[in-house]
Every structure is written in structure tokens, then in C-alpha cells.
Design brief:
The chain has 205 residues and is of the alpha+beta class. The protein is built from 9 helices and 5 strands. The strands form 2 sheets. A 3-stranded antiparallel sheet has the order 3-4-5, with no helix packed on it. Strands 1-2 form a two-stranded antiparallel ribbon.
């Protein structure tokens, strides 16, 4: 089934805007590196990373229409903030190519996180947030026609200015991670993400 998904993704990504396709490939590369380091399934991490933003370029109106027509189960939080609906919609599009839920869950919840996250989901989630040129991807998204302007956040978990140590409850009461910066000689060289269950991941630039 994974080969079928890969064939589908190759076709899908080939017609995406260049900035978005590049983001998917960078995220997949980082996800595979983290998977190797933490001894997780590299193929599942790669395929989930390649899948996570395949409809990122869709307008919010289109995402809401797809959710309604396809009867995709979404949280009230997501309906009220349709810029995160590309996760549920992407997982809906790839579900027929999978016979298990690991990749689906990683794609479905890659925007808000989820308390059921396993290591593969965490790897994909973090890879999407910290891949080196994510800022450029967001800026390109903001410039697309029909896109509403979104504030660029350097720290995706931050609950407020100078408030890095809080756990944010978002999207259905899911536990988000605490972010700590790793600083060497005055320069941020990486991040430490600590989850509510006590597990943590180190990511270096």
C-alpha cells in the first residue's frame, strides 16, 4: 500500500507550487534523519512528511467546502480556524492508499498536535515546524491569491511573549510541547521540545 501512496504523492507533488513542493521535500528529508537517529520507521516518516501539506495552497473557503461535502470529521476549533483544515483534508485524500493509521494520524494532526502522538507523529510534527526554510514557505503562502494574512510565528508553541514555559491547550484539549532554546555563544543552535508526558526531542539547526 505504501508504494501506491508514493505513486500518488509523486503525481500530486509534481503539480504543486514550487515553494510548497520544496517544503515537502525538505520536511521529508529532516523527518528521515530524525527517524534514523531515534530508530523509527524512516519510510513512514518520509511518506507522512510528503503528505502533510499537499493541500496547503487551497483557499480556506475550498477547504471548508471539501470538509462539508466529504463529511470529514473535524473539531469546532478547526472549523473556526480553517487555515488548519489542510491536515484533515490531506489525511482524507491519502486514506485509501493506507491500511494502517500511523501515517494518517501524523498527517491529520500535524498542525495542532495530539495527545495520542507516537514518535513518528512527533518527528513529522517537529520536522514541519523547524525545517530550515519554513519561514519562506509561510511567506509564499501569505502571498498566494485568496490567502488571508497570517502572523509569522518563529516559535509555533509559544503562548505569549516571554512565556515559553507554559503548556498550551489547543485543538480539542491536546497537550502541546514546551520549547527551550539551545544557545551556544549567543546563537540559537537548536531546540528542545518537552511533551506533557515527560518525553523530549532535541533538534539542532
Amino acid at each position: 500500500m505504501n508504494n501506491d501512496l508514493r505513486t500518488y504523492l509523486n503525481k500530486r507533488i509534481s503539480i504543486l507550487p514550487e515553494w510548497l513542493a520544496d517544503h515537502l521535500y525538505r520536511t521529508a528529508k529532516l523527518a528521515m534523519e530524525l527517524a534514523q537517529y531515534y530508530k523509527e520507521d524512516t519510510q513512514k516518516c518520509e511518506l507522512a512528511a510528503l503528505s502533510h501539506d499537499i493541500v496547503k495552497h487551497y483557499d480556506n473557503k475550498d477547504l471548508l467546502e471539501i470538509v462539508s461535502k466529504q463529511n470529514i470529521d473535524c473539531l469546532d476549533f478547526e472549523i473556526k480556524n480553517p487555515n488548519v483544515l489542510h491536515g484533515p483534508v490531506a489525511s482524507h485524500y491519502i486514506q485509501d492508499y493506507l491500511d494502517e493509521t500511523v501515517i494518517l494520524d501524523a498527517v491529520r494532526w500535524h498542525t495542532s498536535g495530539h495527545y495520542t502522538f507516537n514518535n513518528i507523529s512527533k518527528i513529522v510534527f517537529l520536522s514541519d515546524k523547524v525545517e530550515p526554510y519554513k519561514d519562506l514557505c509561510v511567506e509564499a503562502t501569505k502571498q498566494d491569491a485568496g490567502r488571508e494574512d497570517r502572523r509569522l510565528m518563529k516559535d509555533p508553541y509559544k503562548t505569549g511573549e516571554g512565556d515559553d514555559d507554559q503548556y498550551e491547550k489547543g485543538g480539542g484539549g491536546t497537550d502541546r510541547a514546551k520549547t527551550e532554546y539551545i544557545v551556544k555563544e549567543g546563537t540559537v543552535v537548536g531546540f528542545k521540545y518537552t511533551y506533557a508526558d515527560g518525553s523530549s526531542v532535541l533538534v539542532y539547526n
